[in-house]
Structures are given as C-alpha cells and as structure tokens.
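fwd from M.: "can u put these together and see what the complex looks like"

so here's what she sent:
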Amino acid sequence: MTVYRHEFINVLLSIFSMSHFRFESKMNIDPLLLIGQGSPELQGDGYALVPDAHLAFQEMSAAAEKQGIKIMIVSSYRSFERQKQIWNKHFSNYKKQGGSDKQAILKIIQYSTIPGTSRHHWGTEIDIIDAKPKVEGDVLLTHKFHDQGPYNELRLWMESNANQYGFYLPYTPDEKRSGFKYEPWHYSFAPLSRKMIKQYLTLDLPEMIATAGLGGSNLLDENYLKNYTDSHILGIDPILL
Ligand SMILES: [Zn+2]
C-alpha cells in the first residue's frame, strides 16, 4: 500500500513538473512590448522601469548612496512613438541639408537607434549619472566618466558593484565588439533583458518596421535589418546574451 502511494505521488509530481515545463515554455513576452508598442507596467519617480528592474535599482542606488554616490537615471523606458519622433526629426533635418536617404540613416544610427530596435523599449535599461557633482552641458559623454571627469567615481562604483544587483554594461569598451560605441552610462537589468533579447531575435522585424511610417523606411529592408541585428543588436557584452 505504501509503495503504491509512493508511486502515485511520483506520478503526480512528474505530471506537475511536465505541465510546469510546458507553462514555462509558453510564457512568451508580448512582441509589442519588445518593440516599445505595448503597455508595460512601469514604476519609478522621474523614470520608468518594469517592476523587477525598479526594485533592483532601488536597492543598488541605496547602497551607492551610503558611499556618497547619488545615482540619477536620465533615460529609462522609451516608447516606439518617442523613438519614432526622434528618428523622423533627425531624418528630415538631414534631408533638408541635402543628404540622401542613405546618408541620413547612416548619420542617425551613429548615436540613435532605429525605432523598434532600442533596448530602452524593454523597461530594463538605464542611462545614469551622479547627481552630486554640478555638470555643465551634455552629461552622457565618455570622458566625463573617466579620469578627472565628474562621473569617474560613479563608474568605478558601478564596475565593482552593479553586477551583484543584476546590472551589466551592454556597450563595453571591448574593441572586438561591433555596433554602438562604449557607453559607460548605460546599464541593463540582465535577469530580464536576457529573456527579452532571446525573444526579440525571433521577431519579424522587417515586417514591423516597414509599416511604421519611418523616414527612409524603404531602405530598412530585410537585408539591412539582418546586418543591423548582427552588428548593433548582437554587438553587446556576450554575458547579456
Ligand atoms: Zn541608453
């Protein structure tokens, strides 16, 4: 009798774990969330992050504050619409200067992403500075995070501590990396963004972008986006893949 009961429990356990497994594999993220066209739950005061990333950020910034560093987020969640405004504004400015569509796009992607391809759409990414030093002009400049720069201490603290809160640099100074330049200010909440990129890579990006009303979208075809994915989207620290 005891043996039977034992087997019965085992069968129940295996059914549970199988169904649990199926449930897990079906837990796909809404494709619209991956391209900034969904309505994610966002939290934060003066910034917007998905709840788990927000909680981890709060813990990390509390720890930094004890060391005299006041982490301030200057950019977090960004919607497709916002990125599209930025894109189309730059595109028409370059066109007014007499450039071709191709030249305009090449200029824009030096420092901006194609709408639908920004990691900032995920609510897991932060661009940060230290709010304590008084800084004039643009803040997100590499030299301000190094040597005698006002954010050097913030960079050093993040390099030693961010990983333990789940935050990693996608755009490292590794010269073998392709795509975007080194961004010492941009951190990604890896426990979520690793899942995001996995599913992101399964999307039909050309289809989504072709119909979105972007300047120069006729050039953003399948081949172009395939190359952009390889160089820019996958051109991150492999620890985030
Ligand atoms: Zn960023």
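replying to her w this: The longest strand covers residues 125-130.
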